[in-house]
Amino acid sequence: MKNTVPKIVNLKNERVISMMTAYDYPSAKAVSEAEIDIILVGDSLAQVVLGHDDTLSVTIDEMLHHVKAVTNAKPTSLVVADMPYMSFHSTPKETLYNASRFIQEGKADAVKLEGGSKRKNMIEALIDAEIPVMGHLGLTPQSKNVMGGYKIQGKTLELATKLLEDAVLLDQLGCFAIVLEGVPSVLAETISENISIPTIGIGAGVNVDGQVLVYHDLIGMKSKEYIDAKFVKRYSNQYEDVLESMKSFKKDIENRDFPTENHSYEAGELTEENIKEWKKEVKKILS
Length: 287
Ligand code: KIV
What we know:
This protein folds into two domains: 5-219, Alpha-Beta Barrel (TIM Barrel), CATH 3.20.20; 241-286, no CATH class. It is built from twelve helices and eight strands. The protein is 43% helix and 13% strand. By secondary structure, it is an alpha/beta fold. An eight-stranded parallel barrel has the order 1-2-3-4-5-6-7-8, surrounded by six helices. The chain binds 3-methyl-2-oxobutanoic acid.
């Protein structure tokens, strides 16, 4: 059965919520079949799919293209579309227009956006228009230039308090969940205990209501030079498997070991005899 926003909210204090990113039809199929509660079409696609250095350059249209591919898989997981940089920063009206494209054209169930009190008006506009919003606090990658890189957030009492206040605000505004990324475990635990909606952690320790990982990190779809963040656990090494498959294919066709008879089509009417005749005809036609 399809997951809904109220179902996800009710899972707080019931069991751990699972969330995974997915960016296309086959990954969405796998995530859904594994009964992961939420699919996030994350703006991390800028890096893991499109090869950009950060998430700042991915556009609404590019995100939408992938949201559509994910929802075409008809996953039972709730589908959350990530609002890319500058799609929710200027006015509530523009934010609403951009988010509505994910819902109407992309058929997403909800949107996610980074930031706390600064985005209050935008979040209010979305919730007022019946668009469920997932918040995202802590190490918010779209703020990397202001943060001076990807740094763990909330390490002083003052900054921890600010993050806690932001989480309480998002809860009060009506967000249905909050991603907590790159924050000390004790802060994530304190936030989780003091708000009514689920927290989904990534680099936020054990004591949160759910966990999320990036699909390509989890399956190891990363070339050798890529160094995983501390919070990543690889469950397989797909890049190595794919690489070996490509090398085997190249070797097989060079040795003429592929395709074999089994991969080829039978002659039908094209017997040796009439092929000879036909080839003569072909020569005549082409001369
Ligand atoms: O874009 C993304 O993948 C995310 C997750 C890391 C939460 O925002």
